[in-house]
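ZP: hey, is the magnesium ion complex queued? I don't see it on the tracker
AM: it wasn't, my bad. submitting now with these inputs:
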Amino acid sequence: MAMIVQKYGGTSVGSVERIQAVAKRIYQRAQAGNRLVVVVSAMGKTTDTLVQLANEISANPSRREMDMLLSTGEQVSISLLSMALQELGQPAVSLTGAQVGIVTEAEHSRARILEIKTNRLEKHLRQGQVIIVAGFQGVSNSTELEITTLGRGGSDTSAVAIAAALKASYCEIYTDVPGILTTDPRIVPEAQLMPEVTSDEMLELASLGAKVLHPRAVEIAKNYGVPLVVRSSWTEDPGTKVTSAAVDDRPLVNLEIAKAVDGVEFDTDQARIAMLRIPDRPGVAAKLFGEIATHNVDVDLIIQSIHDGNSNDIAFTVTEKAASQAQSIAEAIAPTLCEADIQSLEDVSVMTANDIAKITISGAGMIGRPGIAATMFQSLADAGINIEMISTSEVKVSCVIQQTDCDRAIATLCEVFDIASSSMAMAPTALNAEQHPPVRGVALDLKQAQLAIRHVPDAPGMAAKIFTLLAQQNISVDMIIQSQRCRVNNGINTRDIACTVAQSDAEAARLALSGIAEQLNFGEIEVNPAIAKVSIVGSGMIGAPGIAAKFFQALADDRINIQMITTSEIKISCVVPEEQGKQALKLVHDAFNLAGAAKVEVPA
Ligand code: ADP
Ligand code: ASP
Ligand code: MG
């Protein structure tokens, strides 16, 4: 007899008929002798409708009242589903998050789960009842017992957390698509089902815009080793398995906040090549990395910063051994990048630095916790270490620093994040392409804005100041990029820093930074909301040269200009103009042969 946690999304319980169909599925599984806890979302678009209602009354409603309002959506669906089960003769009981004891931080609209009490769940299970739990909501750990919500899409997180707390055999997420696909089928109907994906790959995909799973749900599945599967509510097909490495037993208290950083890694076998002032035109990155790939040189980090006038800087890292070859390739290609414009060729410069190291913190717990990157930057600043390059993903922050600072950086970060020992980054080895395709899936995020801070003095502590300030406003930052080029402004060396933030946070970020701009000697702060972020994800891209080049080439072929590039080991993200985002997604999906013959239809 298995203990199963299931979750049904909004579309799956969007009408009386669908609720009855879901009830039948649950009934059959219960009759087969399984114990079931079922988490449900609000019916259809209920949550969106409630948000609209609130906005008709207030442009900026209090987060507490929003939680009171939005949590009602799930209370409707749980009671109806429970009634439908009782009609079938299946004993069932519905419970709100508070009734279960889903205890969260007292942080409205984005609460993290601290603990899930299991006594009441166990009591009802012993009585042979199927339990229907309201997803997306909890109750605060304060004496006031405030109703909280976990953030949009949070029912997935409720389900996986309950599965972890009950040590369920597995957690099934039922939704309106056949499982996790190579991309969003609403944009690219030829998307194909992935029978399996690793939790690391899914974490990246989910945080880069694949909304089929809430990233925090993947985080919990990974940390607690919850077997997770995503399946269609309409068919019996097996769907997609999200696989995780075996994990040690972990306490169930402070479930979502126990540890933000799991590891500190370093790599001293790195050299950085920077190409400064290359033309800002479609095809430039494709040409450069295409040429590097033909020479079979593997590139690790790639960063392209915001452009300044009509030129760009691109910096990338390779192993020290490959540095001089990479430098020659970059120098040789410069004239062809500037074909029409001899003047600009004179401006281009290629610089190589061998005495650098990369230091990385990683952990699924840093998702949505903006203070973590800021803490890293601050600790390095406190140790007097200057950061030369920053590259981020949702689950990793890497900084390039001077090699001589590496030992001190490791000691500092291990202490600050309570990590017993650091590990040397493993040399990339090509993975079996069959099991680990270089690109597993692609994602599009249209909800980000680009924030540029010009002329930031080039001194330790500046990145820390900026990102601590944003963290204090609870603004999560993605794709932090520091320009490679130092420019002298008012007699001091400065760099530009760019990052992406949620569009809804962009104005708050601009205001906050404007407040300190004068005091810290920054230049202008610019916001561009009209961007799209297109990303490719796959663990097989480690040690496989040419993947970045192919991505950039696909965009270049359609004359799509790349505004920013960042990478982590298993993903590459490009910022492109917003209106070209969907087209870019399609092109890249095709370029990596991810399209299938059949089209996926998503029910309304
Ligand atoms: P639910 O209400 O069941 O939680 P969501 O709307 O939150 O459903 O998530 C499912 C939707 O996610 C799909 O309808 C699809 O449009 C979208 N989606 C985005 N990226 C992907 C992907 N890579 N695979 C599958 N679905 C995706
Ligand atoms: N109903 C909530 C939302 O629409 C939670 C969820 O569906 O996961 O965001
Ligand atoms: Mg969802």
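AM: back. The longest strand covers residues 263-279.
ZP: great, adding it to the tracker
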